[in-house]
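Q: Please design a sequence for this.
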C-alpha cells in the first residue's frame, strides 16, 4: 500500500495512475477534492456501465446532480444509497424515475463508503465524499481491481448494513400494503332485495 497527496487540479490523472501501479493505495487531500472530482477520477476505471453504491451519513444535492449527469450519459445503470436518516424523498426528487434505485437508511451509518462496480473492475473508496470544498485533512483508502477477498475486506460490514436496512424497508412497505384502508359502510339489503334506508335519509328525501 502506498500514500500520496492528491490535488483537485490533477486528481483525474494522478489517482488513476496511482491505482494502476498499486491496486490498494492510501492518499490524502486538504478538503478540496469533491465527490464529482473523485468520481471522474475513478469511475472510468470500473467501466462504461457502472453500478454505484453510496453509503454516507448524509447525501447532498451536489452528489445527486452528478449522479444524474452520469445517468444522462448512459454510464450509471443502477444506484444504491444508504444514509443515516431517511432522505428518500430528496433522492427521488433529484434523480429520474427510470434509474433503478435502492434507497434506505440506518442510524448506524457513520463512515462514508463509495463502491463502483463495472464490466472492468470494482473500485472501493473509503473516505469523505465531500459535496463541496471543505477545508481540512482527509485520509482515503482506495482499491481498484477484481480480487473478491480484498473487496470483501473493505466492504463486508457496510454491505451487511445496507442489506439489513433494505430488508427493514421492504417489511415496512409490505406491512403498509397489507393494512386495510377505511371504507364507507355498505347498506344492508332487506328481504325484498332493496337496500335499507335510515330514518334520517328518509327525512332528507
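A: Design:
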Amino acid at each position: 500500500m502506498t500514500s500520496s497527496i492528491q490535488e483537485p487540479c490533477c486528481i483525474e490523472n494522478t489517482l488513476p495512475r496511482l491505482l494502476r501501479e498499486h491496486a490498494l493505495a492510501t492518499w490524502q487531500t486538504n478538503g478540496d477534492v469533491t465527490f464529482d472530482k473523485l468520481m471522474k477520477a475513478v469511475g472510468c476505471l470500473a467501466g462504461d456501465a457502472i453500478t454505484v453504491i453510496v453509503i454516507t451519513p448524509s447525501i447532498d444535492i451536489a452528489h445527486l446532480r452528478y449522479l444524474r449527469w452520469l445517468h444522462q450519459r448512459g454510464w450509471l445503470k443502477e444506484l444504491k444509497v444508504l444514509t443515516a436518516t431517511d432522505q428518500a424523498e430528496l433522492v427521488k426528487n433529484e434523480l429520474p424515475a427510470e434509474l433503478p434505485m435502492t434507497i434506505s437508511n440506518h442510524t448506524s451509518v457513520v463512515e462514508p463508503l463509495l463502491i463502483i462496480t463495472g464490466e472492468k473492475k470494482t473500485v472501493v473508496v473509503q473516505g469523505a465524499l465531500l459535496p463541496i470544498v471543505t477545508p481540512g485533512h482527509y485520509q482515503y483508502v482506495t482499491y481498484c481491481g477484481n480480487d473478491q477477498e480484498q473487496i470483501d475486506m473493505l466492504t463486508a460490514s457496510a454491505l451487511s448494513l445496507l442489506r439489513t436496512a433494505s430488508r427493514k424497508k421492504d417489511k415496512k412497505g409490505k406491512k403498509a400494503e397489507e393494512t386495510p384502508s377505511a371504507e364507507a359502510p355498505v347498506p344492508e339489503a332487506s328481504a325484498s332485495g332493496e337496500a335499507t334506508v335510515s330514518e334520517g335519509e328518509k327525512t332528507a328525501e
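Q: Thanks. Anything notable?
A: The helical segments are 11-21, 35-46, 61-72, 88-94, 148-178, 199-204. The chain is about 40% helix and 25% strand.
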